[in-house]
């Protein structure tokens, strides 16, 4: 898909440089920085997004906006107010996502526990976990040329599958948790396979069918929560029964503090990323996925069964999204699932996969970034509007999806081999 | 290369400055005073997934918080929004970390989370809105809205010309169906006392089942449901669905003969469809939250600790029906007198409005 090649030294003849002289490392590095290759486009997209986010923060702040009404009378007011607003907002995001400086102060003064210091990171990892799975679910399908919009629905079914095994069966913890996780993966896989089968047998486009299946899953969830089988026995609101203690994901850092929510689902997520990497680059099935994604007709001519590749790819992708659901219903949502528990992790998975360029390592990194944005924005309330995280994500992806835009804004050079963009070839 | 982003920054900033217009106004002599920035008491609120501008209980609770800050300059208020119940814990924890002296959790779903954090922080008073807690430092704020809905049902029965009124809900859960129960009983009371035969569509109190659109957000679904009821002959609509209920008001505005009754707040003021509204089955959330903040402030300054629970009823003005506004002349004096009498009977206990969803506390 994407190749991050460094621009060769003698790409273009340069006026102030004799051909036989090898360019210095700094020169090569500078050349790399000013080129629209995929790494630099990603970095510049992030920087541009934070820049535009800053402008929007300024525009949306009533006090700062008021200083612009007398800009020409006393410009320093507006400029310093803008600067402090943007600076403080991003510091607040950082403190909520990575390290809270005031907690650090209290820790060094001896009034805070070490666990308090880790809470922002724990929140970042907690919010990143479902995104790793849904990002992989979308990314894997991308590689087969399929655009899996259905991760949201697959996740919802995974959530229900894990939940049902989680509260309905009575098993010891060593069996219960793994079984519930597997149930989540299987439920997601079964639901994910549907668009694959439809595409393989009838040619129905997976984008259309998976969008529709998302709606079906969301409405099914509302109905399912209300059924007597699933609905909470103690609470009147629209919430399910909690899963048994034996099926709850153990917290990773509970010895350091009960409020550290990051749990084993994160480990499973990293394992799933490694598995996806292995599947794609080391297995025969992965070769088939990539071959079909590259050129389905050639693959068919070479004797590969296109239909079954679509079906299995979608099933595996659905299984990954189902694990996101299991991570929720057995993890942070273990006290009961509502219609909001799944949030929009499935749709966010599309942006995570785009930012990670459908590459398992990149997806984990992108999920961590988005998790950090979410945790940071939540904690920075009410000083920073909570929607800033969604906003930044959207702008980042806008730029990632349009490398030509980044190239034009920053006057970057075109790399050898042209601009790299990510696209599904299922059309 | 490196100057490019800076140039862009300058360009962006000047564009914003120009767009703001009037950029050549007078500079103020000093910074305007921030809202109680140096207050000694900080009251914090955590919303449920609806967010602070949900035109429903989060918004009303926040109005109560702001009213408390308005009344007492020494109180500062802040709000943190949740987008799902998985955000409750971090938001509550962050409120404690921010040094809040009183933390209000909105929504019955948050009660458990509030209990956990209140147990871990026994020195901070908490409150749970629409939930009941037995933890010592958690104050429960609940409402017996069946009582106000009862009066609304009675008015509806007196106003209908077709003999049919309709109700529908967001989701079949007690905070919704308690309104529908009260409404149904109010209609039944009118039928019994006045010998009318008004029929209620959309809710069967005995079966505890009726028409639900399974969302609180989708006003279009609310409108199509309302249109169906109007086709069936209903001329008064009682939507119990938060923002989705607006769909009933648009449907009513398109039919001259159809009017509606709003819930939670006085819809004449909180919605754009005041002309369609006979009245509203109000729940005095803002007042209750405001009182709890002021009580917590007093407690922090040497007063009695805030504890126990509060159930809003007609007796303590915690629930009520809103003024008739545009319909004041349409509702007869006879009906108004009967409503006053019924209110008295409910207050003194001679008339009991029963709903399986009524608050169990106290």
Automatic annotation (TrEMBL), chain A:
It is a multi-pass membrane protein. Residues 1-12 have a biased composition (Low complexity). Residues 1-21 are annotated as: Disordered. One of its GO terms (molecular function) is transmembrane transporter activity. GO terms for cellular component: plasma membrane. This is ABC transporter permease. The keyword Cell wall biogenesis/degradation does not apply. Pfam families: BPD_transp_2.
UniProtKB/TrEMBL annotation, chain B:
PROSITE patterns: PROKAR_LIPOPROTEIN. InterPro entries: BMP_lipoprotein, Peripla_BP_I, PnrA-like. CDD domains: PBP1_PrnA-like (cd06354). Pfam families: Bmp (PF02608). It is found in: Cell membrane. Keywords: Cell membrane, Lipoprotein, Membrane, Signal. Its main location: membrane. It is a lipid-anchor. The keyword Cytoplasm does not apply. GO terms for cellular component: plasma membrane. Residues 43-347 form the ABC transporter substrate-binding protein PnrA-like domain. PANTHER family: ABC TRANSPORTER GUANOSINE-BINDING PROTEIN NUPN, TRANSCRIPTIONAL ACTIVATOR PROTEIN MED. Belongs to the BMP lipoprotein family. This is BMP family ABC transporter substrate-binding protein.
